[in-house]
């Protein structure tokens, strides 16, 4: 009789707990359910299951950390650090030393930078680099945009024109510079064309202090146009077709569509073009080295060419490194300014 009463009381407790919304999962052995030990075992089994579940969740989270991408990135990170960041750190050190390759570096503090402030040739080359910047950047920022609009059409043979516009980019700068050197000769094609249209000209464009720097700037701009044309072409093909169609329905002319639809959408592309063209113009070296060597009278001497002469002709590595650091700082400042301007334009938009 007591056993029956015990069974009924236990069953009533189970029914009461289920009705209150507390679901229990356990296997109850009939022989041990009469006493209170059975309930204790039931609670213990529930707590143990919760702990196991918590451990299982932690293990699952740990398994989500995938090391495979980091393993693939590791060689690139090592190479970049070894051949870019480490030499940059060494350059900062050598800029404070007197280092002539065949002799150990001697610490001289800010002496290289003091000499730089008094070096007329440094200021001349820096000024020439900014002249290259002022001539080439507007050309390769504006002209390639119109070239991109010309080839942004679905007509037969348009890919041929795209290839022809891009061909100078993949041509060796050495070959291009030698070719243009003949064009700028007093008996070259440029003077021949000017004489043909009635303008008498026997100018040696590369030996005239007034024309040498603009002549090299035009060469650099011509060679880079195809590259920036492709960047603009990619941007034009991403412009929303719905906006263009809506502007046409509203009766907008082609000029208004370009000004009010294309140009606002191309703001990020303009930012990229401006940064890259700025860096390229300040770092102009190969064409100057081949065509004029910095002459006449240092009128075409760029800062990278002057750094090269100091480092590899005079072997004054310490002073050359100090000028390289200054050039790096200038490029960083120009890049940051352009980045701020481009972000400001996007926020306004």
Automatic annotation (TrEMBL):
What are the annotated GO cellular component locations?
plasma membrane
CDD domains found in the cross-reference section: TM_PBP2
Q: Tell me the compartments it is located in.
A: Cell membrane
The source's domain of life comes to Bacteria
Q: Which UniProt keywords apply?
A: Cell membrane, Membrane, Transmembrane, Transmembrane helix, Transport
- Give the transmembrane region(s): 67-86, 130-151, 163-183, 212-234, 269-291, 317-339
Q: How does it sit in the membrane?
A: Multi-pass membrane protein
Which terms does the UniProt entry file under GO BP?
transmembrane transport
Record-linked InterPro entries: ABC_transporter_permease (IPR051393), MetI-like (IPR000515), MetI-like_sf (IPR035906)
ABC transmembrane type-1 domain: from which residue to which, for each copy? 126-338
Q: Which family does it belong to?
A: Belongs to the binding-protein-dependent transport system permease family.
Name by which UniProt lists this protein: Carbohydrate ABC transporter membrane protein 1 (CUT1 family)
Q: Which organism is it from?
A: Cytobacillus oceanisediminis
Organism ancestry: Bacteria, Bacillati, Bacillota, Bacilli, Bacillales
């Amino acid at each position: 009789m007591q056993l029956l009463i015990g069974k009924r009381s236990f069953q009533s407790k189970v029914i009461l707990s289920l009705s209150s919304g507390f679901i229990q999962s356990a296997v109850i052995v009939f022989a041990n359910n009469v006493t209170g030990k059975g309930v204790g075992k039931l609670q213990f089994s529930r707590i143990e299951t919760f702990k196991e579940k918590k451990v299982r969740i932690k293990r699952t989270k740990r398994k989500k950390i995938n090391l495979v991408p980091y393993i693939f990135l590791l060689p690139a990170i090592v190479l970049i650090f070894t051949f870019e960041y480490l030499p940059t750190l060494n350059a900062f050190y050598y800029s404070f030393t007197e280092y002539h390759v065949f002799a150990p570096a001697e610490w001289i503090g800010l002496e290289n930078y003091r000499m730089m402030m008094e070096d007329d040739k440094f200021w001349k080359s820096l000024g020439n680099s900014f002249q290259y910047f002022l001539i080439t950047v507007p050309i390769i920022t504006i002209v390639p945009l119109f070239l991109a609009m010309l080839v942004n059409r679905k007509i037969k043979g348009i890919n041929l024109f795209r290839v022809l516009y891009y061909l100078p980019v993949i041509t060796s700068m050495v070959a291009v510079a030698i070719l243009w050197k003949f064009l700028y000769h007093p008996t070259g094609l440029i003077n021949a064309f000017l004489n043909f249209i009635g303008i008498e000209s026997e100018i040696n464009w590369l030996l005239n202090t007034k024309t040498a720097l603009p002549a090299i700037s035009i060469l650099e701009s011509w060679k880079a146009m195809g590259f920036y044309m492709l960047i603009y072409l990619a941007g034009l093909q991403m412009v929303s077709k719905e906006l263009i169609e809506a502007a046409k329905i509203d009766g907008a002319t082609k000029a208004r569509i370009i000004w009010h639809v294309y140009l606002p959408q191309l703001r990020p592309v303009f930012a990229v073009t401006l940064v890259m063209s700025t860096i390229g113009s300040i770092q102009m070296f190969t064409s100057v080295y081949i065509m004029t060597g910095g002459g006449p009278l240092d009128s075409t001497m760029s800062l990278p060419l002057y750094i090269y002469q100091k480092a590899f002709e005079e072997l004054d590595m310490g002073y050359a490194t100090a000028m390289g650091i200054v050039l790096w700082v200038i490029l960083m400042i120009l890049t940051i300014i352009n980045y701020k301007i481009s972000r400001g334009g996007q926020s306004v938009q």
